[in-house]
Amino acid sequence: MTDDKSKEKPVKKPRVLDRKTQEARRRFLRSLGLAAGVVSASLVGFIPVVRGYNPRLRPPGALAEDEFLASCIKCGQCIQVCPVEAIKLTDIMDGFGNGTPHIDARAQACDFSCDGLQCVLACPTGSLSHDTNYPHQVRIGFAELARPDLCLAMQGKGFKGRIRDASFKGLFRYAELNRWQPLPVRGQEFDREICDLCIVHCPIEIRRNQCEAGHPPADDPNQCPPSRAIGLEPVEGGGMRPVIYEGCVGCGACEMVCPVTPAAIVVDMTKNADTVTA
């Protein structure tokens, strides 16, 4: 007779890790988590690429987008000197461009209130090219009549009243009211037989008119734009069409003051006067 106890297999004791082994395992897991975090953070830059976001409207003097992103150090100097606070910083949804300056023309356009392109002068890296000396040399976009069916001029209509509602915070320098202080757009009353607000607010058109009247900005003839930026041309069957000329610099003033919603005229930031007329 065989003893049953002699057939029982020995019970395997659970492996007990010593302190040194446990610490090594914890370090490995921490390293793994850190690596995953770094990889995830680096992939954030691809978010706008994956979602197909449109490029941003950059401040005056901005280099080509790839050069701009490579050279901008996100210091915010251009933001601090803008008199109408047109320049803002992008957020994380801009991926690799996170923290770079841009302009939302519908909210606040660049109206060149500063005359001397202060944002360009403040840029320490040349991301806003120091070769840009005058507003008419800026090439940050090109306006287009994106929604002609909404344009009041195209319908042969005028405009009377205030351009935007009471909540609108946009500013514009109305030199005939105050040469030095930009004023709230919402506070201005207009009465136009045919809506031409995009034209009367165009900084290039304003400067061109001043020069033709013999009064260039700052008494400097170099400030005079060589070409017109926008004008109204008759439409067959009635109405007037806003037409964009080669003097357009893409400042966005026309988009900001367009009284219809959404704006009939917008800035295409993928184009500029050079690419359109080439």
TrEMBL record:
Pfam annotation, one family: Fer4_7
Gene3D superfamilies (alphabetical): 3.30.70.20
Transmembrane residue ranges: 28-50
Superkingdom classification of source: Bacteria
Keywords of this entry: 4Fe-4S, Iron, Iron-sulfur, Membrane, Metal-binding, Transmembrane, Transmembrane helix
GO molecular function list: 4 iron, 4 sulfur cluster binding; metal ion binding
CDD domains referenced in this protein's UniProt entry, alphabetically: DMSOR_beta_like
InterPro entries, per the entry: 4Fe4S_Fe-S-bd (IPR017896), 4Fe4S_Fe_S_CS (IPR017900), PSI_iron-sulfur_center (IPR050157), TAT_signal (IPR006311)
Ranges for domain 4Fe-4S ferredoxin-type: 61-92, 99-133, 240-270
Protein name: Ferredoxin-type protein NapG
Source organism (scientific name): Thioalbus denitrificans
